[in-house]
């Protein structure tokens, strides 16, 4: 694996772990929505401060924590906002490397199994079975997105090269006319 992928995975693992300890503590769990609001305000402030590359990592970390806090506060697996976890997989595949949803999917399944609500039925655990089905699609979209971004960069570089060659050609024609 790429060094960048490992670092991003460790940062996301840390975010998921911190969120797990936050929601399992009854005193801290009471303030989960307030923490989510603070995280979103932090996201807005960091958008102005950080460079785009660093901001993508901050955005993915904050959005991961916010989604986990919101869905856990509202019932975990049985939350009506649980679908945000699926959107999170696609978001991270577009913001970071396409392989990140594979690792995050495993983290999320472990997170929801470990923080299982006592009122959760066995049928609600089937929601977790959607992660292995959605993850390959998120990885696929992430790879396509990266390919398109790389092609855009290549087109820009080639356009600049064409402009330079046109300028050189015009200069050569001007020199020939003066002779």
TrEMBL record:
Sections of the chain in a coiled coil: 145-175
Keyword annotations from UniProtKB, A to Z: Coiled coil, Membrane, Transmembrane, Transmembrane helix
Transmembrane region(s): 5-24, 30-50, 62-88, 94-113, 125-145
Name assigned to this protein: Uncharacterized protein
């Amino acid at each position: 694996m790429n060094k960048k992928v490992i670092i991003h995975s460790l940062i996301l693992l840390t975010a998921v772990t911190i969120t797990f300890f936050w929601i399992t503590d009854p005193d801290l769990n009471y303030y989960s929505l307030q923490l989510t609001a603070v995280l979103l305000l932090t996201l807005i402030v960091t958008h102005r401060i950080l460079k785009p590359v660093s901001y993508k990592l901050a955005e993915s970390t904050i959005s991961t924590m916010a989604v986990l806090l919101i869905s856990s506060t509202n019932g975990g697996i049985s939350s009506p906002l649980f679908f945000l976890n699926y959107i999170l997989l696609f978001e991270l595949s577009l913001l970071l490397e396409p392989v990140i949803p594979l690792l995050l999917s495993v983290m999320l399944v472990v997170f929801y199994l470990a923080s299982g609500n006592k009122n959760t039925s066995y049928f609600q655990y089937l929601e977790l079975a959607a992660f292995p089905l959605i993850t390959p699609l998120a990885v696929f979209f992430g790879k396509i997105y990266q390919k398109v971004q790389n092609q855009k960069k290549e087109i820009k570089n080639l356009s600049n090269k064409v402009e330079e060659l046109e300028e050189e050609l015009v200069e050569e024609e001007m020199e020939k006319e003066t002779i």
